[in-house]
Task: structure prediction
Amino acid sequence: MVQPTSFSVNAVPVHVRLIDKAAAATFQDTDAREPVRNVSQAPLPGSAAAVIAGQVVFDKYNDPMSQKHGRINTTRGHFTMRQIDIDAYITAAVISRTPQTDDIITLLGKFSGLWYIDDTVPIGHYADQGGHTLMQFWFEKREPQIG
Result:
């Protein structure tokens, strides 16, 4: 399988694991009498961690933030991809769908970690292109902090 080439400026490899939201559906907690989201992180069938190329920007990297339980370091940022590159990845069966909220990123360039996509924003709207030309995927680190 030949992976599509991204023509984004300064694109780096981004490892994304697409999550099957049907397997992580909510269920009714009989004790609390409320819906609870299943924390299962089942990957989509036939979908391992895919390597795609995107332009990464870290807005905050290990930025200390005070919480009630103490100080934690937060990492937040986004990566941008052209819509035609996303479509090419889907056509080449590199990914089965566009990354969505709660999908997991395990590598951003040379930085490994555990980031969750928490927002997707279509940007770069041009009338002659028939809509958006770029997608921004906002991510945040959600790892337990020790120490």
